């Protein structure tokens, strides 16, 4: 258990999202995956076989996307790498986004940690400006439990859902993220903390903690674009109130894309010139 | 078990290859993954954790690449889809390439078929011109068994390794592939056959079987380029000697790419402009 010199805060991004993978300018993935009888029918093997039940029905996944199958594997690979390197997170906090909850579960599965539970922390949600004026809507704790997700029922968040501000500035977002890191590190004074959240979180939850100022908009967007799925960063405690970024605690995870196969290529002469394959 | 009207030949491509994913114009993945002491040290979480032992040592993987972790998952997803659709291959034949053997194992794992064994068929190897004058070198049956791969020891191949011709023309390749399909369908007169081989195999093992002529070079390359990992095609028997292509037996599998994360983006000002991330 974390003495001062070994105490770590590890922050991870979630895995591959269904919407980014399957929605195009022509259609939203859900519109293609729900049949006329209102049943979910995955049209691609990388879509989840089943979706958790939630009060808003399937339509709620439109603004709270699940992971793809690959996304879940990405999470398990990172978890296995933590385990290989004997990195044990004692307290796990997740953004309430479904993709983050599912990623955290994949990480724990990869670590073979069957008894660790998740603290759902709305303060770890992404920059509110990324919501594009649609208020977030997440699974309730009861819905998580019904889906078999191991979440704490009595956790008191640092930032409540109702305290999130749709017009949050970038500085506000850095300050909110820093408040979460600082408060949780003080509430849980021993052991390693793992945050599973969004691309920007790697920076926003560690930046001020390590004594730096929030970034400019330009730098921020640059950083977010350079943060692939399951990126992770480790900040280590070097003094009573001092933290330092050590780097990524595990090797990176890179893989190539795979297009959808269309068997008409084999049977229709000239068909192979068609290029729209995903 | 296959009566005439339900008998199927299913042909699949292997999954994501380590070399295509990790070798660049600057280095071969193996050169980066073998340390000075000659030990294998995966530098990315998508590389296999361990490699099977083989007589030529690690260097043999240079021309006989293993699957990536994602490649193995792709295979399991296809196997699960076969199982969901109650597609049962009674006889499984694989190209001797390691990536094909590992893919077949992933498919069987996804199907929950723990007792099915693989027939290693050199006649299913890819077009010899793709070897670029390097003679193929595969795991021996004993090496497969030592690695825990469930292969038949006494299978007599349709085409022996020594019968493969380094200067094979495209027509020769179509004829070899057709010979394999025809011979195996006649040797195994009942049940479904599954071939796990290469991109071109989907066409070359079914084309003449379904009464079509081999393709031109131009059409061939177009088709190969349009055959992603784990593409699969089903030909169904419609008469004593007649087969017809039905299409792909399962939904397609599409996913996006993921770049390697470089944590220096967070700590080095201006570093994010560097673009070489895989």
Automatic annotation (TrEMBL), chains A, B:
GO molecular function: phosphatase activity
InterPro entries from the UniProt entry: His_Pase_superF_clade-1, His_PPase_superfam, Phosphatase_SH3-domain
Pfam families: His_Phos_1 (PF00300)
Highest taxon, organism lineage: Eukaryota
SUPFAM superfamilies given in the database record: Phosphoglycerate mutase-like
Protein name: Uncharacterized protein
Source organism: Acrobeloides nanus
């Amino acid at each position: 258990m974390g003495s001062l010199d070994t105490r770590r805060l590890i922050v991870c991004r979630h895995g591959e999202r269904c919407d980014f993978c399957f929605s195009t300018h022509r259609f939203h993935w859900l519109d293609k995956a729900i049949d006329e009888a209102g049943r979910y029918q995955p049209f691609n093997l990388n879509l989840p076989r089943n979706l958790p039940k939630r009060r808003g029905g399937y339509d709620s996944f439109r603004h709270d996307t699940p992971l793809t199958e690959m996304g879940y594997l990405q999470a398990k690979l990172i978890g296995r790498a933590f385990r290989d390197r004997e990195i044990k997170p004692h307290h796990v906090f997740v953004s309430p986004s479904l993709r983050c909850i599912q990623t955290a579960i994949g990480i724990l599965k990869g670590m073979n940690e069957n008894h660790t539970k998740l603290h759902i922390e709305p303060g770890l949600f992404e920059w509110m400006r990324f919501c594009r004026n649609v208020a977030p809507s997440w699974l309730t704790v009861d819905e998580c439990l019904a889906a078999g997700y191991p979440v704490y029922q009595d956790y008191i968040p640092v930032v409540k859902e109702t305290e999130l501000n749709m017009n949050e500035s970038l500085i506000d977002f850095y300050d909110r993220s820093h408040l979460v890191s600082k408060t949780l590190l003080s509430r849980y004074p021993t052991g390693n903390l793992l945050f599973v959240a969004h691309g920007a979180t790697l920076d926003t939850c560690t930046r001020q903690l390590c004594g730096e100022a929030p970034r400019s908009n330009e730098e921020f967007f640059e950083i977010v674009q350079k943060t692939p799925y399951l990126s992770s960063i480790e900040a280590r405690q070097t003094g009573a109130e001092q933290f330092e970024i050590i780097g990524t605690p595990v090797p990176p995870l890179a893989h190539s894309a795979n297009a959808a196969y269309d068997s008409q290529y084999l049977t229709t002469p000239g068909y192979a010139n068609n290029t729209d394959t995903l």
